[in-house]
Amino acid sequence: MGIVSEEEAIDELQKLINQVEGPLKKTFERVHQGYLRENLSRFLKARDWNVSKAHTMLLDCLRWRVDSGIDSILSKPIVPSELYRDVRDSQLIGMSGYTREGLPVFAIGVGLSTFDKASVHYYVQSHIQINEYRDRVLLPSMSKKNGRPITTCVKVLDMTGLKLSALSQIKLVTIISTIDDLNYPEKTNTYYVVNAPYIFSACWKVVKPLLHERTTKKVHVLSGSGKDELLKIMDYTSLPHFCRRGSSGSSHHTQSVDCFSVDHPFHQQLYSYVKHHYETQGQGEPAKQGSFHVGFPEPGADGVQIVKTIESEMHNLENRNGLGKPVDDRTVSP
Fold it and tell me: Which CATH number is 81-244+258-281 given?
């Protein structure tokens, strides 16, 4: 009884989703970009191949996209440009290149992101724009170039500078991660954690048992900057800057253009793409405008428990010495 194979599960979900019409159908076309079965598979994986739960999840995602106007978010520039620069300097994320298999490599400065130069809505807007640009522009382009579907990316998480003060950012980080979990499931093939200080390894030890095995298998905590391990899957030119020199920082503290900087080609191309699509609407030069608001989903019970566990562990660490001690050359046990 029930679905006996992954292919049959995809077939069943496809039959259900074929029934959607109007705006939901249109926005789903934006989601799958012609790679229908690969994208149905993502939602099924996120719900352990339960067709009914995957169907509900996908419908909720499509309704969120329609209600929040996600299809038009790539024509909503963050202006003025100085504000966008502030966002980039405090929300450290960028794309450094591609793996040898053609997957985009996204770098995230977890430890040094401050999220203190704009409202939460701008940070969420920027994050979703990067997601949509990845899914609508980068991945389809790489799929065509490689002659096969490429629907995921890899992420390199730089923990340089991670401190107890990160507690103040947990609410925003939780909002962003919940948006990803519910609406962009299974888009990351592997997470590589580098430059991990003691505070990370302590929190990872207590959080790991709370995560789904599917998630923990994706997380690889590398020794030091992770350069040697990452060079096994990508060329040196695609290494994030903090893996090359073993440290990270915003665009104002580096001599060369790093992948976090607004001046990096990725961010220049993304911003130009968004501005161009705004201007093609016939509205001319974008004036200063309010941020693009989306509905913030409530984290599930598991997410709430994880946040409470992290907060508890960090408060425990607060009462000890050595919060800023870096991990030594040994690989942190993932």
Answer: 3.40.525.10
